[in-house]
Amino acid sequence: MDKKQILVLGVGNVLMSDEGAGVYAIRKLGEMYRFSDNVTLLDGGTLGIKLLHSISSADHLIVADTAIRGLTPGTVSRLTINDIRLGTSPKNSMHQLSFAETLAMAEMMEILPETVIISIEPADIETMNTCCTKEIWAEIDAMCSFILDEVTAAGGRYWK
User: Fold this and answer.
1) What pTM, to 2 d.p., does this model score?
2) Can you tell me whether residue 30 is helix, strand or coil?
3) Whole-number Cα distances in Å, 12 to 47, 67, 89, 139, 146
């Protein structure tokens, strides 16, 4: 039996402060860990609909992103596609609409794999800055920990 293919996808705009937190988390994971052959880390940036092929190739999708939910900045949450359908969607930003459309399109095409979103509440997504705020940097490790838990639950492995 083949192992499930797991795509860990970081999305966000690294030019807009905390908006890039999902991408930074994926980059950190790639620097700190090695993963089993069935796990792929992908910096999706602001590619939106262009990610459809990568998403459709996975059996399990783990998305790292920011989401404005009215929580304390730096709060990490696990969301599902049902949460997105019910309006708890990742932030309102340059890539948000096209990425939400990408998920919706993949679902309509019946190619959306089992999906979870690991989100972090941003402090600032409006300031043009190529790094996150202190509050968010302090919680990137927590975001990475959530992602690693999801990788393990989906059948992937990692090591230092």
Assistant:
1) 0.92
2) helix
3) 9, 10, 13, 16, 18
